[in-house]
Amino acid sequence: MMNQKTRSLAVNALVIALYVVLSWVSGLFGFAAGPIQFRLSESLNHLVAFNRKYIVGVTLGVVLYNALFSPMGWVDVVFGGGQTLLGLGLVYWLGPKCSKLWQRMALVTASMSLTMIIIAWEIVWTGHMGWDKLLPMFGTLLPSELVMLLLSAPVMLAIDRAVHFAKRVEA
Length: 171
What we know:
Radius of gyration: 16 Å
Number of helices: 8
């Protein structure tokens, strides 16, 4: 029998790999980076609503994908990883105050969508755009994240009925 730490590490390693693959697939269609992002992998953010231990896998998945494939390199590792850690960190902290799963999933959706302001800041800064472009950039990133998370929530709930996400990182 696998102990709890080993199980959690193994499951989070699978989440990292899945995040990278789903982002790469999104990149094939041109939606993994830029002012409009529809990364299929962003649906994995909802895992933190099921169990807070998934924050490691999701955050490191973002970092690894950005390190390997982002045209912005280390800057995207820092900003993308930081945005994910901040957004999911809020869910990690506030999630236990939400007694229902749908409330935690709504918290994931709101937190990750609103923290896209960090990615907007990154794009404006690295693109040498005027700061007057920050809100319009956020105006494209926020709805793309929001739509992805809203569409993926029922899918993640359906998958959970079969695989029981909360139990996967527990012994």
